[in-house]
Amino acid sequence: MPFQTAIAACSVCALIACLAGEARAETRRVIAADPLAKEMTGRDVSFLARDLETQEACLLENSDLETRHGPWSSFKIPNLLIALETGAADGLHAERSWDPQRRPAAGYWPEDWRRDQTLESAFRRSAAWYFQDVAVDVGAQTYRTVLDAWRYGNAAAPEASDRFWLDRTLRISVSEQVAFLSRLLSGSLDVAPKNVEALATASLDRRSPEISLHGKTGSGPLVPGDFSRPFEGWYVGWVARTGMQPIPFALYARAATYGEIREFRREFALRMLTECGYLPDGFDR
């Protein structure tokens, strides 16, 4: 099923639920942490997913769902939409030239950041400078207005800042990440369908004939700029299923080093989605 068809179906179902007075209260399923303790060693992990078809939430035991954290590059999900909605980019093909004088490469930059980018390549590669340039074009007031309307965390975007999502000024909780995606995917946000479609294209991680996984990682040091301190990270996205509403999810992890969360974020999120019954065994192989 094309993604936009699924979004339309979500909107219809959301309307039915509203007219019914939201008769179906959310149920919660908790995945025990003890059997997963070895995989989580040395890490603090929180996970939440919400099946918009059944209104079931599935979470990892002892998850902290309400504390707000810096979103880091998981903010590229709303930022891509904001770029498209405001005209700062006219599509996934929108190219920006890297100016090494204006945006000098830091030592940790991968090689694929050090070149011109399109909106899609910058999203997939997590090229921060592209979205910093977008932030300058969009402006802080527009960010605050949009993020407040979307109820995205604390909606903080200081004037003259092009890195508010990278310095922990903007903060969001696990539950707020999932709630934002739930509103987006159910069609209750004022976002053009073509821009939601563009996000689905850019965020596609893996697909099978019946299921597609969409997601974005993000990470950074708890003390911005101090790479010797503990790191925090995200894997945020949704599972799209043929003929059914999607399943937004968010995983947050914290550990002593970046290496301890780099691959773990995505791998453990998929493990949790499998434990919840939202992905089949072996989906990622």
Walk me through this protein's architecture:
By secondary structure, the protein is an alpha+beta fold. It has two domains: 1-69 and 173-285, 3-Layer(aba) Sandwich (Beta-lactamase), CATH 3.40.710; 75-171, 3-Layer(aba) Sandwich (Beta-lactamase). It contains nine helices and nine strands. The protein has helices spanning 3-19, 37-40, 76-86, 119-125, 128-138, 140-149, 174-185, 193-203, 264-275; strands spanning 27-31, 43-51, 56-60, 95-96, 117-118, 204-207, 211-221, 231-241, 244-255. Strands 1-3-2-9-8-7-6 form a seven-stranded mixed β-sheet, sandwiched between helices. The model is unreliable at 1-23 (pLDDT under 50).
Quick overview:
The protein is an alpha+beta fold and 285 residues long. It has helices spanning 3-19, 37-40, 76-86, 119-125, 128-138, 140-149, 174-185, 193-203, 264-275; strands at residues 27-31, 43-51, 56-60, 95-96, 117-118, 204-207, 211-221, 231-241, 244-255.
